[in-house]
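Running this now, will post back.
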Amino acid sequence: MATTRRVPPSENLRRLPTQERAQRTIQAIFEATAQIVENEGETALTTNKVAQRAGFSIGTLYQYFPSKEAILVALIQRERRRVMDRLQTMMREAVDQRRPVREALQDLVHLLVESFGSGPRAKRALIRLAWRLDHHDDITQALREASERNAVALAAMQDPQLRSPDPTMMFVATRAVMGVIRSASLEDSPMLGTAAFEAELVRLIWGMLRLD
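Update: finished.
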């Protein structure tokens, strides 16, 4: 398989899409990229093919992205931000609605597995590519942010069955869950998307959170 060069975050976008038309252009490029990777595979991806699928000239594409690698990294970063925003909303609603912690954990795990591992086979190909391309610093920052927000939400739930979330516990729990999802995705495991897989992840987190 072709090797994809890692691109520093600063090189992802040549121009920031500040106007509505530019934002539509970026969206069309992202959609075309995802379609090619999902339907034809990573090796079929070229900037010329992306531009053609999106309906733009190659010059227009290069106004925003210097390479196909830059498109992929920007697409991955955008998706991660979307998931982090959904996660924050989900945990805030769980606190406001005083939902049982275990139910909230089930929803959290389902969102993470759905976003970073499962789905139709075509979607899984793009997710595996995202895991292979990911920059360590980027994903570390995302995990740190998620861990801190989840700790605040769990503390606000005030469940007497649970330990008070501390940085060490949240670090281990977050990395354990995401590490399992990453491994399952890269291995294209048939367990992804199954109720049994998600149930085991919930048990893992619940075991870490409960008082001894």
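Residues 17 and 146 are 27 Å apart (CA to CA). More later if anyone needs it.
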